[in-house]
Amino acid sequence: MTRERWVTLRPRDQLGHIAAELTRAALAPPNADLRRVLLERAFELIDLSLDDPRWRPTVLQLLTLRSLVAEAYLGRADALDQALAAL
Fold it and tell me: What long-range pairs does 46-50 form, CB within 8 A, spacing at least 24?
């Protein structure tokens, strides 16, 4: 998704897209390439949201989410569940 298209979405819709990628990743086998690709896609979407000025007042929420996704990407078992709960 392009940045131009992403910023046309409401912040709650942006979170919905991020949550969808994280849910798909949670359902993928832990060591599967698919899980890695889905988490990388979640990173891309979070980064697009971080570039959206509407998130400036609550940027900490996105940064916390990004940190949890990073931990899941590195293999911490419960980080993906925590990321989903943070949404």
Answer: 46/18, 48/1, 48/3, 48/6, 48/7, 48/14, 49/6, 49/11, 49/14, 49/15, 49/18
Residue type, 50: L
What is the pTM for the complete model shown? 0.92
Q: Where are the beta strands (DSSP E) in 20-63?
A: none
**Crossing angle of helices 33-50 and 59-73, rounded to 10°:** 160
Ordered by start, the domain boundaries in the chain are 3-86
The DSSP code for 32 is -
pLDDT tens across 29-43, in order?
888 899 999 999 999
Decide if 35 contacts 23 (C-beta within 8 A).
Answer: no
The amino acid sitting at 43 is: F
